[in-house]
């Protein structure tokens, strides 16, 4: 497995993998699939120096990705805190791709001047919670019942890791 910085020609695959999570149960709070054209500005805003997007590649195929994003952009006191999000192609789940991506992001944190990572996940996403806990993330907050999927309600949990 190769983990590298995402390139522009990876964006369609990134969108495809994300849309699998939109279609899945309680993997993201989005309820509508991403469109490629809508994600171009988002992609361009993730520079490899500050807010990279890492992709996991196996035999030339992108199998998952992780993004490091600003947390509460513009609030200077929070400049060393970044949000980490990750998505794995459903055909490759359970093969250590999420672990490899998260380990890579943690390893890169000092280079990116990150002191804390935050991951915000739906409280029903037990697989993601287990992955975060495996890497030492701790529950830092819970917003109960704020996500509504056409009458099915769940909360958001904030997991954090001090680097």
Structure, described:
This protein has helices at 11-23, 36-44, 97-108, 126-134, and strands at 2-5, 53-58, 61-70, 81-88, 116-122, 138-149, 152-162. It has 163 residues and is of the alpha+beta class. The protein has one domain: Gcn5-related N-acetyltransferase (GNAT) (Aminopeptidase), CATH 3.40.630. It has a seven-stranded mixed sheet. It is globular. The mean pLDDT is 94.
List keywords for this structure.
single chain; 163 residues; alpha+beta; Aminopeptidase; 4 helices; 7 strands; 36% strand; globular
Question: Which secondary structure elements does this structure contain, and how are they paired or packed?
Answer:
Elements (H helix, E strand, L loop, with lengths): L1 E4 L5 H13 L12 H9 L8 E6 L2 E10 L10 E8 L8 H12 L7 E7 L3 H9 L3 E12 L2 E11 L1
Parallel strand pairs: 4-5
Antiparallel strand pairs: 1-2, 2-3, 3-4, 5-7, 6-7
């Amino acid at each position: 497995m190769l983990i590298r910085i995402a390139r522009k020609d990876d964006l369609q695959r990134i969108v495809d993998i994300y849309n699998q999570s939109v279609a899945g149960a309680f993997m993201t709070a989005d309820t509508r699939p991403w469109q490629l054209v809508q994600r171009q500005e988002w992609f361009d805003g993730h520079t490899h120096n500050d807010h990279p997007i890492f992709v996991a590649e196996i035999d030339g195929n992108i199998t998952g990705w992780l993004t490091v994003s600003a947390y509460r952009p513009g609030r200077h006191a929070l400049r060393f805190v970044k949000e980490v999000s990750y998505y794995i192609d459903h055909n490759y789940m359970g093969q250590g791709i999420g672990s490899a991506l998260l380990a890579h992001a943690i390893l890169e944190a000092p280079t990116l001047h990150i002191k804390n990572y935050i991951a915000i996940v739906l409280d029903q996403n037990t697989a993601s919670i287990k992955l975060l806990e495996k890497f030492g993330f701790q529950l830092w907050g819970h917003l109960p019942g704020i996500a509504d999927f056409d009458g099915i309600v769940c909360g958001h949990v904030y997991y954090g890791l001090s680097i």
